[in-house]
């Protein structure tokens, strides 16, 4: 009641503290055409030099309002509406109403409705829902909350039109937003609450369509996709992948987790304790869930997945504390994304080996965080990747090249035209899987074009946080001694927050060597298996949050130089265990016969649990160490006990000893005669074609109307191919390509 008395008299103001000396509701509705005489600034000197343009109080990105200038803190209206809804019918011990009709009317009219009216200009005016950026869900959520509390179907309809506009305009068909993981959660924290607030709303007969689809949990398949996306893109501890503009330690919104458990228990059941982390259950859980449900903390057991709209592949192995997660991000351009196509992230057993610097908001250090130069990728000609350049109307076009998952090894390959001078910019990452969640990753990065290729790595291990106990050590190569890491503290001088320093080089490196980032209890080793012209080590900014200012991390660069340059960088990423166990015993690049073709790569890796022969891009059939191969990728493995197994993706031949195949179709491609959300009508299924065995999966490649992406195949028959998890967009092209995935001995 006190807030209702005060709110109506608070003056309307904008983010720059310009105040409208007029009736607040009138000012909100006319914030761009008030006469200058009605506008005031707290500083007289500022107002004296003001102009109509500078004084304008347009409700744009930062907005305007009475309580707070950023969309008037509209998200607060849910709590206020809930409090009023719960208290407005209160009675005393004798059964007498505690609220008078006048008091109830004042809260409804002077607080709830006026607050709503103040926010309407930002989204297009009364009964409009035309804006769909990441600030608008809080307004549509406020509309839904007030509509539910006061029983206003027209306002509820506006809220749902806002929800639908954001859902369809700011989220792709896979349920992911066109922004970063962190900002996707920002969207969802206010967007997913709209269907919940209006669940069971009593629609009058004049709203026929709303009555027919009153339960959006049953009638809106994209709502289900958004909830599933919240889970499937996480790390095993429930944290967000800190890629693009996503803060270190970010998590899914508490209320969204609670609503997920209530509405989709088949996905969220038994996991919410882990998902909440250190957060306490909220009001939604208090009113809708049992204590035993919300506190369950079983392993998340998340899938290996590729999001066809976000265009990010996530490979996994192990569960709980032993879990490893590796992501290859090649998202299209979008809000709060970075110039970082083909950047690699790798977390093992809860420790980040190959990281991303996260997001610290609009701080000077963010220039380094978003830069191409700070990421784990190849930098070409010392330049940033093409990304939202005003003088270049052509946005980057990433492309999925390959994706498959199996119990022994999984792989994702992608390319991008983020560098205009490059005819090829392509990365293949293979996650090799061992016992107890142990892994290593094979990395093949191909670049063609430009004059300098810089394969760049940094690790979160051995940062300045480790003090003198942290170090970057080398085996098989010599570099000058490292000077002490600089201590910049909170300085925002350019040298402190951008670029590498203390660079030391070896200009005649051998073809094979190792670099290890070490600190007490953990290590990460990189095996270089390709000749390069120069190796450089340095340190750079590593600030990831608002506390660790001045933090430094150690960078490693593998550099090639020349005109019309072509490079193939080959390496292995090896996590060290807390107990100091070594996974990779040896690794070597193998010379391939000329008949395999100029792009062929072969390497042998001896692991603690077995051996691997990795063969890639053999245009012609050739034999390497007793194994014959032709095709895109072949992995021939042998357990420590001697049992052989193999995986061939896009291969016509992979034969070694008593197991293998030869002369088979490497792929199935053509044009679908028709398609539905989860199926293609196809023909020309190659003779002898077999679907992968249980536990393994291949992806079919399609253009979704904008990008060459892919979808997980569940089954194929003579005339059909079905996909799962993600719907095929209506605008997708009919052209398809499916690599044969053949596995033997994986049982």
Radius of gyration: 29 Å
Q: How would you describe the shape?
A: globular
- Roughly how much helix do the residues carry, as a percent range? 10-25%
Number of domains: 3
Sheet of most strands: 15 strands, antiparallel
What's the number of helices? Answer: 20
| Class from secondary-structure proportions | alpha+beta
Q: What's the CATH first level of the largest domain?
A: Mainly Beta
Total count of strands: 36
Overall mean pLDDT:
93
CATH architecture of the largest domain: Distorted Sandwich
| CATH-defined topology of the largest domain | Beta-galactosidase, Chain A, domain 5
Q: Could you explain the architecture of this structure?
A:
By secondary structure, the protein is an alpha+beta fold. The protein has three domains: about 75-295, no CATH class; about 305-585, Beta-galactosidase, Chain A, domain 5 (Distorted Sandwich); about 665-745. Helix content is about 20%, strand content about 30%. It has 20 helices and 36 strands. It has a 15-stranded antiparallel beta sheet that branches. Strands 23, 24, 25, 26, 27, 28 and 36 form a seven-stranded antiparallel beta sheet that branches. Strands 5-6-7-8-9 form a five-stranded antiparallel beta sheet, with no helix packed on it. Helix 5 runs parallel beside helix 7. The mean pLDDT is about 95.
């Amino acid at each position: 009641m006190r807030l209702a008395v005060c709110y109506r008299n608070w003056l309307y103001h904008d983010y720059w503290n310009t105040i409208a000396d007029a009736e607040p509701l009138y000012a909100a509705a006319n914030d761009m055409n008030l006469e200058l005489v009605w506008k005031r600034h707290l500083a007289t000197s500022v107002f004296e030099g003001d102009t109509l343009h500078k004084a304008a109080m347009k409700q744009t990105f930062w907005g305007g309002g009475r309580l707070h200038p950023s969309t008037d803190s509209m998200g607060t209206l849910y709590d206020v509406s809930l409090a009023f809804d719960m208290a407005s019918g209160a009675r005393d011990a004798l059964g007498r109403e505690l609220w008078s009709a006048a008091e109830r009317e004042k809260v409804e009219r002077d607080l709830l409705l006026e607050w709503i009216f103040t926010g309407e200009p930002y989204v297009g005016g009364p009964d409009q829902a035309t804006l769909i950026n990441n600030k608008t869900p809080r307004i549509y959520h406020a509309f839904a909350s007030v509509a539910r509390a006061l029983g206003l179907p027209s306002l509820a309809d506006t809220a749902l039109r806002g929800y639908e506009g954001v859902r369809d305009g700011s989220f792709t068909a896979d349920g992911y937003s066109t922004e970063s993981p962190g900002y996707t959660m920002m969207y969802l924290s206010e967007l997913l609450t709209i269907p919940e607030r209006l669940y069971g709303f009593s629609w009058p007969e004049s709203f026929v369509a709303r009555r027919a689809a009153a339960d959006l949990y049953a009638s809106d398949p994209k709502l289900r996709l958004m909830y599933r996306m919240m889970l499937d893109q996480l790390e095993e501890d429930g944290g967000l992948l800190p890629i693009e503009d996503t803060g270190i330690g970010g998590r899914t919104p508490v209320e969204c987790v609670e609503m997920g458990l209530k509405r989709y228990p088949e996905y969220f059941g038994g996991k919410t304790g882990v998902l909440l982390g250190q957060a306490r259950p909220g009001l939604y859980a208090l009113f809708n869930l049992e204590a035993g449900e919300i506190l369950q903390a079983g392993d998340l057991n998340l899938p290996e997945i590729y999001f066809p709209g976000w265009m990010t592949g996530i490979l996994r192995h192990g569960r709980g504390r032993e879990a490893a997660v590796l992501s290859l991000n090649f998202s299209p351009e979008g809000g709060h994304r970075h110039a970082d196509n083909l950047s690699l992230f790798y977390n093992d057993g809860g420790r980040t080996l190959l990281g991303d610097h996260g997001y610290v908001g609009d701080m000077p250090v963010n220039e380094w965080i978003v830069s191409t130069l700070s990421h784990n990728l190849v930098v070409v000609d010392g330049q940033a990747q093409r990304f939202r350049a005003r003088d270049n109307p052509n946005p980057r076009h990433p492309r999925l090249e390959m994706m498959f998952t199996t119990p022994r090894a999984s792989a994702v390959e992608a390319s991008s035209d983020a560098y205009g001078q490059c005819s090829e910019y392509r990365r293949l990452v293979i996650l090799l899987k061992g016992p107890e969640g142990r892994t290593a990753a094979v990395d093949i990065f191909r670049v063609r074009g430009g004059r300098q290729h810089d394969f760049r790595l940094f690790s979160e291990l051995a940062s300045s946080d480790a003090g003198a106990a942290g170090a970057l050590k080398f085996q098989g190569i010599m570099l000058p001694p490292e000077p002490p890491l600089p201590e910049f503290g909170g300085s925002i001088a350019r040298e402190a927050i951008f670029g590498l320093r203390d660079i030391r080089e070896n200009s005649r490196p051998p073809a094979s060597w190792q670099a290890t980032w070490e600190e007490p209890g953990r290590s990460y080793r990189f095996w270089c298996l390709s000749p390069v012209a120069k190796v450089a080590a340095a340190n750079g900014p590593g600030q990831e949050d608002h506390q660790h200012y001045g933090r430094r991390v150690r960078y490693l660069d593998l550099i090639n130089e020349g005109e019309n340059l072509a490079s193939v960088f080959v390496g292995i990423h090896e996590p060290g265990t807390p107990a100091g166990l070594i996974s990779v015993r040896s690794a070597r690049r193998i010379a391939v016969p000329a008949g395999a073709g100029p792009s062929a790569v072969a390497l042998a890796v001896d692991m603690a649990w077995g051996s691997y022969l990795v063969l890639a891009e053999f245009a012609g059939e050739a034999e390497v160490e007793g194994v014959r191969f032709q095709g895109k990728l072949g992995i021939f493995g042998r357990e420590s006990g001697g049992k052989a197994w193999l995986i061939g993706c896009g291969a016509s031949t992979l034969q070694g000893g008593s197991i293998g195949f030869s002369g088979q179709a490497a792929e199935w491609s053509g044009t679908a005669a028709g398609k539905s959300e989860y199926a293609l009508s196809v023909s020309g299924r190659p003779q002898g074609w077999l679907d992968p065995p249980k536990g393994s999966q291949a992806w079919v490649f399609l253009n979704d109307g904008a990008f060459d992406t892919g979808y997980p195949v569940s089954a194929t028959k003579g005339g059909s191919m079905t996909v799962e998890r993600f719907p095929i967009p209506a605008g997708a092209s009919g052209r398809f390509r499916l690599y044969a995935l053949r596995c033997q001995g994986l049982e």
